[in-house]
Each structure stands twice: as C-alpha cells, then as structure tokens.
Amino acid sequence: MVENNRIKNSKSKTKLEETEEFKSGFTWRSMLALLYSITIFTPAVIWLQLVTLGVGLGGVVSFGTLLLFAELARMSKKPLTTQEAVMIFGPATIAGSAGFINLIYRMWFVKQPLLRVFGINPIDIPRWWAPPPSSLAYEMRTFLSPDVTLPFIINLAYWFVNLCGGLFFGLFLREVYIEGERLQFPIQHITVDAITSLTEREETRLTVLAWSMAVGFIYALILYTIPTYSTAAGYPISTIPIPWIDFTLSLQSLFPGIAFGIATDLVVLTHGFVLPTRIVIGMLIGSIARFLIINPLLVNMGLTRWAEEWIPGMDLTKIFQQSTLYFWLSPLIGIGFATGIVPVIWNAKTFMRSIKASFIKPLKYGRISGAPFSPLILISLYIIGCVGALALDIILVPGFPVWLLAIYELLLPFVIGLMSGRMIGLTGQSIDIPHLNNLVILAGIAQGYDKIDAWFLPLSLNPGTGWLKTMKVCQLTRTKISSWVKMNLIAHPIALLMGFIYTTLFWQIAPIPSAIYPAPQIMWPVRLMHKCTWISAIRGTEFFNVPMIIYSFLIFGALISITRMIRLPFSMVSVAVGLGSPIPVHVTQVIGLIIGKIIAKFFGEKFFARYKTTISAGVSIGEGIAIVIGVLSALIIKSIWARPF
Predict the structure, then answer these.
(1) DSSP designation for 79
(2) Is 419 helix (H, G, I), strand (E, B) or coil?
(3) What CA–CA distance (Å, rounded) separates 45 from 28?
(4) How far apart are the first and last CA of the chain?
(5) Alpha helix (H) residue ranges in 461-516
(6) Is the overall model pTM greater than 0.90, yes or no?
(7) Nearest CA to 57 among 636, 634, 644, 622?
(8) Whole-number Å distance between alpha carbons of 22 and 98
(9) How far apart are the C-alpha atoms of 43 and 46, rounded to whole Å?
(10) I need a surface site. Which of 41, 104, 243, 497 has the fewest CB within 10 A?
(11) Is residue 456 within 8 Å of 125, Cβ to Cβ?
C-alpha cells in the first residue's frame, strides 16, 4: 500500500512539474504581432489568390512577422521568449480572405452559361448558397445586398462550426498521438528549428535572408507592384506576363493541341529549392504527360470530344479549361480516388493501430504536452462543431437521409483524423481521401433523394490535423497549448473582419474575375466543371464517364502499388498533382531545382542544405513586401480618384 501511494505521489509530482515548466506565449507583444500580420499581409494574401497560381504567403507571414518582432524586441533589450515566438509564428498564418472570395465565386457561378451544358438550371440552385441569377449583387459588386444576406450568414455559420470541430479533433488527437503514443512528428522539429534560429539571431542565416529578401523585393516590384500601381492610376504598364509566359501559340503549328509555358513568380521557382527532387520530377512528368503528349495525341488522332473542341489559336488557359471539361474530368476523379484509397490499403496496419491506440491502449501518467483541457470543453466543442454542422445540414436539405449526414459529420472525422494524425506523427505526411462529400451525396441520391440542393452543401471534413501539428510545436517548445488556442480564437474573428474589408475593396477596384484578376478567370471555370460533373453524374451525361473513372482508378492504383515495391525517382502521387494542374508551375519548379543544384555547387552542398529554406523564405518575404506596397498604393489611388463602377 505504501509503495502504491509512493508511485501515485511520484506520478502526480511528475505531472505537476511538467505542467509548471510550460509557459504562456500570450503577451501584449505577441498580440501586437498578430494584429500586424493580419492587417498588413491580408491584402497581399487575397491579391495573390486573385492574380497568380501556385503561390502562397504562409512563409512570408510567419517568417516576416517573427523576424520583425524578434529584431524590435532585441532592440528594446527584452528579446522574445521562445513561447512568444511560437505565438507569432503560428496564428499569424491565418491572414486571408476567410471565404469571402468564395462568396463572389458563388455569385459568378449562378450566372454562367456553362451550367446549361451540364443540364443545370440556375433557378434550381438554392438561395442559401448563392443569390438568384436575376440578382444585381454581382454586377454591383457588394455583399450588402439583401440577396446576399442568407448565403453570407450560412457561410459564417459553417466557418464557425468548422473552427470548433477542428479544435475538438486537434485536442482529441493530441491525447492519442502526443500524450498516448508519443510520436515524433519529424516535420514539426524542423518548424521548431526555424523558430529558434530566427530568435537566436544566427549571423549567416540573417545575411542569407536579407539578400534573398532584396532579390524577391526587386523582382516583385517589377512583376507586380509597377503593373498594379500603374493600372490603378489609369496608365497600365505591362512588365512581365502574369501568371506565366505562354509559348503555346508558337508550338501549335507543329503539335496541334499542345500547351506549354513558364510561370513567372519567383516564389514558384524557389519551391524547387525546398521540395524533394522526386516530388518536383513527378509533378513535371504528370504535366508533360498531359499537356505535351496525351492532349496533342488525342487531337491528332481525333479521339474524344476534346479533339473536336480544340481549335487553332487556343492559348494555354483555354486548353487547360477545355481539355479538363471534354476529357480529363473523369480520369482525374479516378486518379484522385486511387491516390487516396490505395495508400490507405497499403497502410492498413498503421490505421488499425491508430484505432487501437485511441480506444483500447490506456494513456500513460506524466504528461509531456502540459495540462489537458477539461472534458466539458471537449464535449462543448464537439456539440458545436460536429452536431452543429449536422443540424445545419438537416435544416438546409430537409429530406436528405439523416443517417448519411450523421456518418459524414460525426464519424468520418474520427476515422480520417486517426489515420492522418498517426501518419503525420510518423512520417510528416498524410493521405487525403478525395470526394468523400460527393460520395455521400451520391449515396443519398441512391436512397431516392432527387433534388439538386444537396450538391451545394458546404460539406468539409476538418479532422484537426492542422491544430495537432502546432500542438506538437507547443509541446517541443514548452509552450502552454491553452495560450496558443486562446491566441487563435482571438485571431480568427479579426482575420474574418479584415478579410471582409479587403475583399470588398478589391472587388470595388475591378470585377472578379477580370483581366486585372486573372487567376479566377483561369481556375473558376475548371472548378465549375468539376462540381457540375458530379451533379450531372445522375443524369448520365458525357462528362461523367463511369468506365473511365474505374479504369483510371485501377491503372493509377496499380502504378502506385508498383512504385511501393520498385523504388522510382519520382512519386506517383506527385504525378497525379501534375496531371491536374497547369504545366507552367511545374516547369518553373524544375528550373528552380536546377538553379538550386548550381547554387549548391558554387557554395557547397552543406551550405545550400542548411539555408535553402531561408532563401525561399527571404524571397517570399521580399515579394510579400513589394506586393503589399503595390496593393496599398492601388487602394489609396482608387479611394482618391476612382469610381467603383
């Protein structure tokens, strides 16, 4: 009895000591950094979404904000603590539009003549998803129309329940994989190294970062800032084509149906520095197979509807869109299923061990990630996030089989979270199973539901793995997870407000999509085609080719299985990415891979391996600063001179 009491006291002491070692990163300095990152970077994040493809500012926001505030703190003789740096590096990355561009997409969607091609009547699209086609809200470019009120409220409601649901599953997976199985999470160790290197002020790294920032700033000044400012002033100046240089017209006389180009954003090029070589090569192989081999072959042999639709003079954008619609939609669905399902089959033991660890294996004493959240908080988050999402689904699509919606909202996030969480903890990577939401809708149709509105339910699984990864960073840096959650819960509403303000301002400058905002002009039609293909599946149209989906699944699944047994210098999953995206992005990434090899040759392999992520981060930061200058200048000019119409 005495021995048992001693053990219990020892365990309690260990738990208490480990909890006391953790420190809060929630301070006035980290809060100020959060406000800075969201206010300054949100317009740049939104603008990049509107003008280019394959470019994000996650590194810019994280590294840029942390670097600035680390230097300011050092100048004040009170350096940032590691815990404050985690706060700045993590929640700062949520800067963005918070879904408001998606609302504009919905307004654009209901007015597209392409819907008729799929046999869809815009009148049948539910009013809670988008205003009616007769609404003037899209032409007036405003969210303040009565027609937009209901879609706006529904969008916010799903945003809120998704946030709560993701946090619940993140906390649940923390107990399973951080506290229970004590997995290593290798990628999160790299993140911790990045945070500590910026706060510890390594001289060589800062020098590399500064030179990279200068290069990125100067290039983006030419690529983005000058055209943005001059266009806003009414005297447009073209410098370098955005988002790519298109060589398609020059090659068509030799190879009808071909498409080729080079992306012009320097950040895309630096992705070739940091992505694994086999991933970069795989994506290029996929793009070459589609745009340089299969597309021209189908045109020259007169096969499929794509061959009939191709006409001389098509540019890269049109070829990407039209070949997607008239050939690639069904194969890409099959390939998507293969990339999600086949690796799960190969990792069945891992998946079963995850379930066993969650519900059978008891958790150990002596916590390593700090104090747990109370069961009441977890239950409340689950009710709001998961049960709340189910309630919204039932309200919006009455008559749809409730048991299917319950499986999707209440059960599947556990399954996907357990699978993805363990894989991230072991390898740093996870597997996405695509089209689960579409399969739920198809299953409901098979049960007799015959309305179109279910296809517009904003079903989106959030298994909490994003929260889980940062919770591991908190554990490694001895940061209180509660302080990080508190910071996030404050950050999200602020990001929502700033996203609304800046999206509205951009929309007032010019229509979305338009020549000023080319990215939606390229991708929105493809996005529309994908949704309409699933909707038209029940009507037996040519766009949903079931045999083609099955053959693509079997062939690509077999290739994935073969590459697991025979080591190849590329990844089949990356090949699938290349098949489904424009070729210029992957050509530029390969150019970046080659330039990286040259840099490594001149400066040494060790130097490049140590600082390649710093170079990429510096270019991103410099480009982000130039973009922010251009965007804010354009907004100021428009607010002074321009009319919204």
Answers:
(1) P
(2) helix
(3) 25
(4) 82
(5) 465-476, 481-509
(6) no
(7) 622
(8) 32
(9) 5
(10) 497
(11) yes
